[in-house]
């Protein structure tokens, strides 16, 4: 189990735009995908490669490729969608599943409403994505769901994580590595991460 805060000047710089309440939807979307792309570099460091022979203009040589079935990306709807493009830009062979879970605003409990996964999901490493890890309820629900589908290798990729949410996921799923661009201070009385960036889904899709 690992909890990794991906510290990089480019990520910290871009995160500032996402935090800023005056950032418009277009810049918010673009920047979130850019950070997701940068974080993909870190999350995929341990991926296993296949050795193949390739012919350069000069000679034959051994080289390495990612097997086609290596990765699936599963965004937690809606906000997770905001990171998918940035990830699959770097892993074009990744299949994309969707799991719909929203958080009840009063109870803060996850409410399930949709799922569609690639048929061979159990054979792949799953990058489960959601920009916000707050109480950890949505992440835990989605991880439970994926495990029931037979997935064995899951990594959770978030943008901002609250210490409470990290603790809850680590407790329930100690085998799942968590990557985040920033571990924030905590959760306020409404269950929002502070300082945070507000409601990620609303900011991506302009719904408020
Ligand atoms: O860790 P938790 O306490 O479960 O909170 C985090 C969840 O809340 C947000 O989704 P939201 O319910 O706002 O749905 P949306 O993505 O459709 O806006 C966020 O994108 C996570 O999925
Ligand atoms: O701060 C938070 C907490 C949950 N969901 C969000 O989008 N933001
Ligand atoms: Mg939301």
TrEMBL record:
Catalysed reactions, as listed in the record: UMP + diphosphate = 5-phospho-alpha-D-ribose 1-diphosphate + uracil
A UniProt-annotated Pfam family: UPRTase
Classification via InterPro entries: PRTase-like, PRTase_dom, Upp_B, UPRT, UPRTase/APRTase
EC number(s) stated in the UniProt entry for this protein: 2.4.2.9
UniProt cofactor(s): Mg(2+)
Residues of the Phosphoribosyltransferase domain: 7-207
GO biological process: UMP salvage; uracil salvage
Molecular function terms from GO: GTP binding; magnesium ion binding; uracil phosphoribosyltransferase activity
Positions annotated to bind 5-phospho-alpha-D-ribose 1-diphosphate: 78, 103, 130-138, 199
Pathway: Pyrimidine metabolism; UMP biosynthesis via salvage pathway; UMP from uracil: step 1/1
Cofactor note: Binds 1 Mg(2+) ion per subunit. The magnesium is bound as Mg-PRPP.
Annotated signal peptide: none
Any one annotated GO CC term: cytoplasm
Regulation: Allosterically activated by GTP.
Enzyme's top EC category: transferase
Chain sites annotated for binding uracil: 193, 198-200
Keywords: Allosteric enzyme, Glycosyltransferase, GTP-binding, Magnesium, Nucleotide-binding, Transferase
PANTHER family: ADENINE PHOSPHORIBOSYLTRANSFERASE (PTHR32315), URACIL PHOSPHORIBOSYLTRANSFERASE, CHLOROPLASTIC (PTHR32315:SF4)
Function of the molecule: Catalyzes the conversion of uracil and 5-phospho-alpha-D-ribose 1-diphosphate (PRPP) to UMP and diphosphate.
Family as reported in the entry's similarity comment: Belongs to the UPRTase family.
Protein name: Uracil phosphoribosyltransferase
Organism from which the protein derives: Haliovirga abyssi
Source species taxonomy: Bacteria, Fusobacteriati, Fusobacteriota, Fusobacteriia, Fusobacteriales
